[in-house]
Amino acid sequence: MIINRRTVEKIVRRFFFCTAAASVAILFMIMVFLFMEGLPILGKVSIKEFIFGQYWYPTSDPPDFGIFPLILASVSVMTVSSLISVPLGVMTAIYLAELASRKVGEIIKPMVELLAALPSVVIGFFGMVVVAPFLQETFNLATGLNLFNASLMLAFMSVPTICSLSEDAIYSVPTALKEASLALGATHWETIWRVVIPASLSGISTAVILGMSRAIGETMVVLMVAGGAAMIPTSLFDPVRPMPASIAAEMAEAPFRGDHYYALFATGIVLFLFTLMFNIIADQIACKYKQVGDSTL
What we know:
2 domains, two-stranded antiparallel sheet, globular
């Protein structure tokens, strides 16, 4: 019986190892394919011209493969959406974890989770049909499909991620810390501000960075509501074309193994490096500033 148990344990252990190894192998193969298809464009343009070039006209003669407007559009949309989603998500998490009654929490939390379940195309359609005409009429704009519209929609998509992870981080703060603060005469709000938030800052920071990573990598929403103009934005209401939108919109019409094709894959490499950087930062924060409590995010 003991031998059988050990055999089963070995089989289970090897099964999970193979599963994890398969995940790593698939990711590695995707990375190899991405770099194989993207790096050939550097034979046509230098890295400096590709990254910092201000004109993206891949079908002109001669073509221009400068993705700086696309990078700036992605960063701008991510930044503005974060300015909206981070306070909203973190404050909602604090309210649900520390202030809301049980009945109220049972109502609000499913609604936040439902927002996460909405398909991105539905959110994009809402931005096109409802938000775009409102912005156009309210601010007398040429078009309501612009940077601010895309940022607003991405903020709605990022809030559930930030809220859920932040709430878990706040919940993991030991009750003893809160009780000690209250015993010393601190109010509930002072306990939240001076004890709970600092103790859960690692998890909250991780949630924020993962929310930003979600925003910069989103495709469908920015494709539908960002405006699609490959230009450097000078205003919140300028139409833009972030990197994911450019890849999705142009890949079908790019000649296979042509310069345009390689340039789009190289753009994907840049986008991949952005998201990789965000995930590394989140992991470093989680490791360096360990969560105070029973668990670490």
